[in-house]
Amino acid sequence: MSISEKDQLLLKGLAQSDKEAVEAIYRDNYNIIQSFILNNNGSVDEARDIFQEAMVVLYEKSKDPSFSLSCQIKTYVYSVCRRLWLKRLQQLNRFTTQVESMEDIVPVEEELEEHEKKNTEFLLMEQALGKIGEPCKSLLDAYYLQKKSMMDIAGEFGYTNADNAKTQKYKCLVRLKKLFFAQYKNT
Q1: Residue 10 CB contacts under 8 Å (≥ 6 apart), including other chains
Q2: Cα-to-chain-centroid distance, residue 134
Q3: Which of 44, 61, 123, 155 could form a disulfide with 67 if both were Cys (CB 3.0 to 4.6 A apart)?
């Protein structure tokens, strides 16, 4: 499996300490790593640390003339971060299984694909929320994100009772689903 021309250019740029290459690698990979670490008993600060360690590993490898990347940079960075994180969990006694046995259980590429798929779905949902308009956007935000009760929402949005607010929330959800799935089919 050969790496893409873009990845080759990024790796070359990284070896030359090119700021744009470094920023592109961060931009393309950090969110996936952060999601992985947050979903596996970690914090944002720990995600930054692990990602930075992986970038140092990649930088050092890019400087080595004998190094040949046989996968995408995204896959390489993810696998390095995953291994570093599992070792860190083990050191902090937050994880009991041996890291090596985890490699056999969950192949890195499958896990990375799953994270990419979820990130794409989150972006599509964000776009659908942007298109849904008011008052639906505010109503769904109040219920799902702010965890307000239907009574509070009815008062805030001027509905006569909680049942009317609930009906409107349902209609908004139906609209949101239609927008989301219309976009989803196009990807």
Answers
A1: 21, 24, 25, 73
A2: 27
A3: 61
162: number of Cβ within 10 Å: 15
Q: What share of the chain is helix, strand, coil (3-state, %, to 5)?
A: 75, 0, 25
Contact present, 12 and 58 (Cβ < 8 Å): no
Q: Are 84 and 50 in contact (CB under 8 A)?
A: yes
Residue pair 77/33 in contact (Cβ under 8 Å)? The answer is: yes
Nearest-angstrom CA–CA distance, 82 and 44: 15
Contacts 24+ apart (CB under 8 A), 22-26: 22/55, 25/55, 25/58, 25/73, 25/77, 26/51, 26/55
Please report how the helices 19-38 and 44-63 are oriented relative to each other, as an axis angle in degrees rounded to 10.
140
Which is more confident, 178 or 40?
178
Distances (CA, A) of 2 to 30, 71, 73, 111: 23, 7, 11, 20
| Interval 42-55: pLDDT, tens | 899 999 999 999 99
How far apart, in Å, do the first and last CA atoms of the chain sit?
Answer: 25
Separation between Cα atoms, residue 122 and residue 117, nearest integer Å: 9
Summarised one tens digit per residue, pLDDT across range 78-110 is 989 988 888 888 877 765 454 444 445 445 566
Query: What's the pTM value of the predicted model, to 2 decimals?
Result: 0.52
